[in-house]
Amino acid sequence: MKYKKLVDVYESLAATTKRLEKTSILSEFFKEVDTETLPKVVLMALGTVFPPWCEEEQGLADKLLMKSIANVVGVSINKVEDQVREQGDIGGAAEELYKNKSQTTFFFKPLEIDFVFNNLRKLTKISGDRSTSRKIAIVLELLSSATATEAKYISRTIIEELRIGVGEGTIRDAISQAFEVEKSVADRAHMLTNDLGLVAKVAKEEGENGLKKLNLSPGKPVKPMLAQLSEGIAISVEEMGEAICETKYDGIRVQIHKKDDEINLFTRRLENISKAIPEMVDYIRESFPNQDFIAEGEIIATKNNNPISFQYMLQRVRRKYNIEKAIEDVPLKLYLFDLLYFKEPMIDNPLEIRRATLESIVKTEKSQINLSKMIKVTVENISDAQTLFNESISKGHEGIMIKNPKEPYIPGIRGKKMLKFKAEPETLDVVVVGGTYGVGKRANFIGSYKVALADENGGLKTLAHVATGLDDETLAELTNLMKKYKIVEKGTKINVEPRIILEIAYSEIVKSPEYEAGYSLRFPVVKRIREDKGLADIDTVERLKSMFKG
Ligand SMILES: Nc1ncnc2c1ncn2[C@@H]1O[C@H](COP(=O)(O)OP(=O)(O)OP(=O)(O)O)[C@@H](O)[C@H]1O
């Protein structure tokens, strides 16, 4: 199938903001595509060529992409940079420049989807000697056969920023519409495999029955089950009748996968972080039986055996060099709390069975490998849960989790079966969309950050400007990130791609016509940068509204 066909679909998707329309456009297209190409176009509609948990990265710097565009259209790199500033992104710039292209290609052959897909995949595989020039050669091969609109989308796929307003939810709905399978069945298959390409292929070939047979398998991360806020320990325990209460640790959630000899650790964004914390991989290997499994836990950073700020954990995960030193400087501890697979899928078992199996297989002799502190509570001994909460806080942890022991593990769901009760007031996770440089001593730093929430159409709505809670180090780090994701800069204002997630505390939610969300925050303060979260994890306007009413 010609790449032009996919590009026409991208254009129609970009032309509407309505989710239902987007779903129909995609669904019609999916019906037309042959089975072999279908998984590819599904990934490409998400702006990528790999499922999210694959470690591969395109690894082509923006500058090199701009250089390639300059080369193909026959202009200087400065001209490309000017156009990027004007258009707001490299893709848009490529399209404009192509329209006025002076050079013509002699052997113009229309691009095929398979060819574009395979070449983009090849980009990630290149390393070592002359890797840059080999990568450029691939990009040039693609760009020199492209039309203006194709060049726009090839560039955007390379930088993984398609700008067609399509997320996983829309793709899932389109698959269910195209192949007439229940949304909930497509949903579950997606949560279990995290591979929408596969879900589409199975839906097309085998329908609902095929999808129902898909299950989790070690090596492929599952979307984690998330928690809702508890309104109070007593109320929650009374509602559940019987509860498992655990210390809530403040670190990074990890999903641990052992498949044959390989152990991999994934974050909640499904990023593989095994290489950054190799000592944990070793401890886990020594503490679990030699069987395939999937377990979940929280890893925290410690000093003298006590928990320290979540930021240290993030630093450990980010670290690419000098890892040996980091292992010494920031020791880690794992607190295990769930078992999703052991010899076979376990998620449909009640929590109490999963927990009991976990306890029976893990050796906790090593101080780094622990089970989360857990007690069973009923209405008769609610005060024990309060005591666990007090104890957890005094030891420097975040609060407690209150879980229903009879419930299965439901991937990707934020339900009432798992609740969290924290000492600190609830915060919001928001994405930065812009900022303003400071004055005087802080003129080189972006001092104020414009942040947004997600709306129901997969778009963003601005909510507030936040300028407090930032020490000099964080300010410098954020400023660098803002420059990295810059779209346009004018005077002291900068607009950025929505990549940086912040956790914000505030004193009150107020109505405000000034911001697109219709609400704003009084005294917003940055608590921390949430590198463990992505755009899909930010809070929604809907949640804000219900918090306002609450
Ligand atoms: N014993 C535990 N059981 C389950 N989750 C735990 C436990 N201790 C710490 N956690 C962490 O708490 C999180 C549950 O809160 P939630 O699902 O709302 O995630 P979140 O949005 O990151 O919330 P928060 O910002 O409050 O951590 C889990 O994702 C996990 O990282």
UniProtKB/TrEMBL annotation:
PANTHER family: DNA LIGASE, DNA LIGASE 1/3 FAMILY MEMBER
Alphabetical list of InterPro entries matching this protein: ATP-dep_DNA_ligase (IPR050191), DNA_ligae_ATP-dep_bac/arc (IPR022865), DNA_ligase_ATP-dep (IPR000977), DNA_ligase_ATP-dep_C (IPR012309), DNA_ligase_ATP-dep_cent (IPR012310), DNA_ligase_ATP-dep_CS (IPR016059), DNA_ligase_ATP-dep_N (IPR012308), DNA_ligase_N_sf (IPR036599)
This protein's name: DNA ligase
Domain ATP-dependent DNA ligase family profile per the UniProt entry, residue ranges: 325-455
Cross-referenced CDD domains: Adenylation_DNA_ligase_Arch_LigB (cd07901)
Alphabetical GO biological process terms: cell division; DNA biosynthetic process; DNA recombination; DNA repair; lagging strand elongation
Residues reported in the UniProt entry to bind ATP: E246, R253, R268, E298, F337, R414, K420
Domain of life of the native organism: Archaea
Cofactor(s) for this UniProt protein: Mg(2+)
Primary enzyme class: ligase
Biological role stated in the UniProt entry: DNA ligase that seals nicks in double-stranded DNA during DNA replication, DNA recombination and DNA repair.
EC number: 6.5.1.1
PROSITE patterns according to UniProt: DNA_LIGASE_A1, DNA_LIGASE_A2, DNA_LIGASE_A3
Family classification: Belongs to the ATP-dependent DNA ligase family.
GO molecular function: ATP binding; DNA binding; DNA ligase (ATP) activity; metal ion binding
Keyword Cell division part of the UniProt annotation: yes
Catalytically driven reaction(s): ATP + (deoxyribonucleotide)n-3'-hydroxyl + 5'-phospho-(deoxyribonucleotide)m = (deoxyribonucleotide)n+m + AMP + diphosphate
Active-site feature positions: K248 (n6-amp-lysine intermediate)
Keyword Disulfide bond included in the entry's annotation: no
